[in-house]
């Protein structure tokens, strides 16, 4: 057998696939599937193919009873549904009768099915049933799945996903990452599964589909896992040459060459500029001018000589100097011709505001526009967008109003409506942003391009993205993993509902149809996923204000027992660790709180305490190096009014900052309307604070912790949580 240095027999796999391709088949038979996985060192039960009842009996007696019989037909994928599986056949008579039954069931299920024979398989009686499979995901390409298997796999859906190829460490994280991991470790005296053997099987299957990307789906279900081995009892493989196709990709250098000109243009042309108020071309011109953009602005309009005191040109080709960016404000049908002129001019980026492309079903026009852009090397943002902002350049290339609060947060949205919400929130919260970008239909430029630019952008410290889909999830995951090591990447993924009900030809295919694929792969890439739009925006606003924690110990200091309970619940929900207070620290806190208060964690100072109690306990929390983050729960009282509380918190936190002690501090304020002003005062001074909620400040702190863990900044290894 021609086995290479990896221990894999690739020639054996190629022979099977070539045979299936020559016959025009999109699936392999069970015996063929067995040959393929065995070529990669994956164990299968003893089995053989019978063409008659007598052959079935002979095979069964040779391998040892009991056995399992399975129909072998390229036209019957779901054998159980067809009555094509019989188990526990313990005598020769049962095997002979079973053969006839399976053949009859198959013909009744599908009269025109090509029947190769009946597979006789050794029946294994022990081990945990798990599923190991791969699917070619539309977004992420080759994805590998692991979870509890057997007939209930699609009901339990206890499965986790990773990108293929994978390594041993990632495979082990899959085994430990399902909800039922404890079962595989052996409970109540049950035999445990061998994690090392299982992880090796996962890696081998991952290598198989990486070497042969035309393997569209591979389903090993069940795999019987014991303390000594793992055997793939049932193998189902689908083949599709299209599964090997990969999306078009640009190098990072190519992306940056274009994006730097687009985000920092020396000149901007407005195709369809107008002097008439209410026109998009007029709004774009006004925003460029009134927003303070200092580069050259060229209005393009064949019927005008001057717009907003600037000379107008009939065509961009008439502009005397170079142009970096062209903003399109013309009807969709005129875009291809105008884009060709833009390309001939050597423009780097075309900002396509118009609608009427793929979002309305006009995919042909969108494809034509992209083809023109590729011909001339122009990158397209859009179409169907509100434009974009880049505040370091005072650039408002949009029909929305200008935005001038500069800061380190870059935001993007696939939806124009969500983009307006982002703009409104940022303005209301006075959130400093570096960029706000609409990507719309993503005919070309997408989130991967934006991440690559923002990674290198010194003006951006955090990236927050709303997306409905990813064009190339594999590329995005790779880029996000690299970027998130230094800058938090937040994502709001729309469409979290289960799409798994779609027709699928394998268990893995059905399982991969739901949002769990996005969730697992984004987490492994270090991305912080926000559950909703307001969460995304609050995370974006709050995370940059919080110092990176130096450890996991979180302490709650509260003036109300009820708030302390809710804050504790929120900590559990956000995977924060409430510190176990050691005796000496417990004694230190008790010096500042009344006898009827409670030390421990939460530390309940009670509601009637003066400002000094808050000050002293917070100062103790900041000074003790064993405490890594503080959550404050304030209760509105006459003794310590809201603004008094806010000002003393700011004072004590800034006192410790001056000493070089920086710990994340968040606050929840309960009380009458004065707590709103107090919360705003805290936020303005770098303390994430909210009135009327115990959940939100803890959620922001939890998001900061998730990023710090995935980036490996807490002293341990990144765990992707």
UniProtKB/TrEMBL annotation:
Pfam families: ATP-grasp_5, CoA_binding_2, Ligase_CoA_2, Succ_CoA_lig. It comes from the Bacteria. The keyword Nucleus does not apply. Keywords: ATP-binding, Ligase, Nucleotide-binding. The keyword Zinc does not apply. InterPro entries: ATP-grasp, ATP_grasp_subdomain_1, CoA-bd, Ligase_CoA_dom, NAD(P)-bd_dom_sf, Succ_CoA_lig_flav_dom, Succinyl-CoA_synth-like. GO terms for molecular function: ligase activity. Residues 34-70 form the ATP-grasp domain. PROSITE patterns: ATP_GRASP. PANTHER family: COA BINDING DOMAIN CONTAINING PROTEIN, PEPTIDYL-LYSINE N-ACETYLTRANSFERASE PATZ. This is Acetate--CoA ligase family protein.
């Amino acid at each position: 057998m021609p086995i290479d240095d990896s221990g894999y027999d690739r020639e054996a796999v190629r022979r099977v696939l070539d045979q299936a391709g020559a016959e025009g088949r999109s699936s392999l038979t069970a015996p063929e599937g067995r040959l393929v996985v065995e070529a990669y060192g994956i164990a299968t039960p003893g089995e053989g193919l019978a063409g008659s009842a007598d052959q079935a009996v002979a095979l069964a007696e040779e391998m040892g009873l009991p056995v399992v019989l399975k129909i072998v037909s390229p036209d019957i994928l779901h054998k159980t549904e067809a009555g094509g599986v019989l188990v526990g056949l313990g005598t020769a008579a049962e095997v002979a009768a079973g053969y006839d039954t399976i053949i009859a069931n198959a013909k009744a299920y599908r009269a025109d099915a090509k029947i190769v024979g009946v597979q006789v398989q050794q029946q294994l009686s022990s081990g945990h049933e798990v599923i190991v499979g791969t699917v070619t995901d539309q977004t992420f390409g080759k994805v590998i799945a692991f979870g509890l298997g057997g007939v209930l796999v699609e009901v339990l859906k206890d499965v986790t996903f990773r990108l293929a190829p994978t390594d041993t460490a990632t495979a082990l994280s899959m085994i430990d990452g399902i909800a039922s991991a404890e079962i595989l470790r052996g409970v109540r005296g049950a035999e445990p599964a061998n994690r090392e053997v299982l992880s090796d099987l996962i890696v081998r299957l991952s290598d198989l589909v990486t070497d042969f990307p035309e393997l569209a789906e591979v389903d090993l279900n069940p795999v019987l896992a014991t303390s000594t081995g793992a055997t793939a009892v049932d193998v189902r493989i689908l083949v599709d040459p299209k599964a090997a196709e990969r999306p078009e990709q640009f190098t990072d250098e190519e992306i940056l060459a274009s994006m730097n000109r687009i985000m920092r243009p020396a000149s901007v042309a407005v195709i369809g500029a107008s002097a008439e108020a209410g026109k998009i071309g007029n709004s774009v011109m006004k925003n460029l001018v009134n927003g303070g953009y200092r580069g050259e602005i060229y209005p393009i309009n064949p019927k005008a000589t001057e717009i907003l005191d600037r000379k107008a040109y009939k065509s961009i080709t008439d502009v005397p100097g170079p142009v970096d960016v062209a903003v399109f404000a013309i009807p969709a049908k005129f875009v291809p011709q105008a884009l060709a002129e833009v390309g001939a001019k050597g423009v780097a980026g075309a900002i396509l505001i118009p609608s009427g492309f793929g979002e309305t079903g006009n995919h042909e026009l969108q494809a034509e526009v992209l083809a023109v852009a590729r011909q001339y090397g122009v990158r397209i943002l859009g179409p169907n967008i509100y434009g974009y902002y880049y505040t370091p350049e005072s650039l408002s290339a949009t029909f929305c109003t200008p935005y001038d609060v500069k800061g380190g947060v870059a935001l993007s949205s696939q939806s124009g409506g969500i983009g307006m919400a982002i703009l409104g929130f940022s303005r209301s919260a006075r959130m400093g942003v570096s960029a706000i970008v609409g990507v719309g239909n993503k005919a070309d430029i997408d989130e991967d391009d934006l991440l690559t630019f923002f990674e290198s952008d010194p003006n951006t410290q955090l990236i927050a993205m709303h997306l409905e889909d990813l064009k190339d999830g594999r590329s995005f995951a790779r880029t996000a993993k690299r970027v998130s090591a230094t800058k938090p990447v937040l994502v709001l993924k729309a469409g979290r509902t289960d799409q798994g009900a779609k027709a699928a030809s394998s268990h893995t295919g059905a399982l991969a149809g739901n949002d769990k694929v996005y969730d697992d792969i984004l987490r492994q890439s270090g991305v912080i996923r926000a559950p909703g739009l307001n969460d995304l925006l609050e995370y974006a606003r709050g995370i940059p204000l919080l110092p990176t924690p130096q450890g996991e110990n979180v302490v709650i200091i509260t003036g109300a027992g009820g708030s302390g309970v809710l804050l504790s619940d929120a900590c559990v929900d956000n995977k924060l660790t409430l510190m176990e207070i050691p005796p000496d620290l417990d004694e230190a806190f008790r010096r500042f709180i009344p006898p009827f208060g409670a030390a421990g964690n939460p530390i309940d100072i009670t509601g009637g305490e003066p400002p000094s109690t808050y000050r002293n306990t917070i100062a103790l929390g900041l000074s003790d190096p064993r405490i890594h983050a503080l959550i404050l729960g304030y209760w509105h009282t006459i003794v310590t009014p809201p603004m008094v509380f806010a000002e003393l918190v700011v004072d004590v936190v800034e006192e410790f900052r001056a000493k070089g002690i920086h710990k994340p501090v968040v606050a929840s304020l309960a009380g009458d309307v004065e707590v709103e002003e107090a919360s705003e005062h805290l936020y303005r001074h770098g303390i994430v604070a909210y009135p009327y909620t115990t959940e939100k400040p803890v959620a922001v702190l939890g998001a900061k912790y998730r990023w710090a863990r995935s980036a490996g900044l807490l002293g341990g290894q990144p765990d992707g949580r």
